[in-house]
Request: fold
Amino acid sequence: MLSARDLAASIRAGRTTPRAVMEEAAAAIAACEGEVNAFAALDLDMALRASMLKGLDALPLAGLPVGIKDILDTRDFITAYGSPIYEEHRPITDAPVVGMTRRAGGIVVGKTVTTEFAFLEPSATRNPRRLSHTPGGSSAGSAAAVAAGMLPLAIGTQTGGSVIRPAAFCGVTGYKPTFRLLPTLGMKTFSWHLDTIGLFAARVRDAAFAVAALTGRDLDIGDEMAEAPRVAVVRTARADNASTDSHAALETAARALEAKGARVFDLDLPEALEEADAAHPVIQDFEAALSFMDEYVFARDQLSPLLAAHLEAARTITPEAYDNARRTAKRGRHVLGDLFRDVDAILTFSAPGPAPEGHATTGSAMFNRLWTLMGCPALNVAGLTAANGMPVGVQVVGRFGRDRQALAVANLLEAAITS
Reply:
């Protein structure tokens, strides 16, 4: 895989150039894309021309190639949102996060594949770790492009588990920042209380470098690692759904953190947080029924049967049920805030197991949706493998707004399990 932070440092030191990095990415795309199908749109000629512009080495991203999930508007590329309804749709403006990427010196090489409207209908993207297995969803193309070494950075989104899960399945770092750290304007909305923009990169420090470059915040941790963090191992009420591989990975991660000086202890979530987990789909689906009202009414025949049936059921959720779910979520956030007074980070499952074989499903978000609802930062930390040789990730969850601390704990864990 390509290290974004190291490549940017090499460009600034004069050891390489944006053009050379772009040519390396183009060669990897030529070698892998035919099998992986990570891109919905691609313009390498435009990207190579852009890599010749003067002054890129003075910008935070230094001319690195970046992929943008095709759920975000781009002025230079058709933005189809993974749906035939929008197959010729060309926005006249970039989504703000795309503009932030360009402003920071990132070069957009193309749009990465999303599942239909970032929902559950599997895409044509394949897992580069093993093509016979799903890459996950909905940010399938972004995770696969980084895992295959085609890009050092890619932008994705998460409403349930669409950053953490594909990152776990493909064996890369997936980072879901604190809610609204990255603006969701210009994103095809699924649920405005849940939609979150995230990043895919080779390592934790690469994701930290990227979010710092995009936002201008002090999040580029480099080699910084948390010192003696208090880490709670949380299995949740859904632990019985996690495979033997996931349980083994979580235990390995916990013991590795202990060996690095962390204080690790088991924690059962308070009832209010388990109740909040059940509120997530109510909020998500009520808002989706409104977000996709036009497509449901005027273009239902072009929706997948899976999404059409889901939206039909979502239309039956009452405003009272939605309001109750939001109140439940708010109580959960208060309880989680109290919990983080005695905890620096939570360690939990990234997914029920390694990537499922076949392409009939993108996997389950059961171990992600609560943390999306809570709005707190979460990272998939790669480096562990299942018995079948496929990646199996573990998830670090931090306190709302404390992204640097979450990144530092994840960096410590990554070093612990890969050293």
